[in-house]
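Why does residue order matter? Because the sequence determines the fold. Keep that principle in mind as you read this record.
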Amino acid sequence: MNKSTKIWQGRSFWKNLSNLWGIIAMGFFIIDFFSYHRYSVGTSAVSVIYIGVLGLYVTSKEYYRWKSKEKFESKYFGEIYVVIWTIIMLTFVMVAFISNGLMKIPGEFVTTYISALGIFAISQQSKNFKLRD
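Structure:
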């Protein structure tokens, strides 16, 4: 197997790509929210890409966890992303409330937030099932 094949198949590739799109998505949502949704077209595309890449990363990680003969330890903490997404959601909710509806939470953000939470929860359940094995 050549080096470029290993890079594409490695979990670090998907982790780095997921991190990149996660940061881009968070940035787009924050900018869009505080600019009264001037960038809603961009946030839609970015949210779909982010959730897709996150799903691919978590799928490859869980596949490796279950196929690995030695004990699998994840060095990366998905909890950090869940906390950051939750802080952004809470900020949006508070600002939308204080603005008396002038600022609205984009539907794409809610979908992205719930999807990221769901992917994390499924990954945690998979981890718990594997630990019982």
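The helical segments are 3-9, 11-34, 40-67, 78-98, 107-132.
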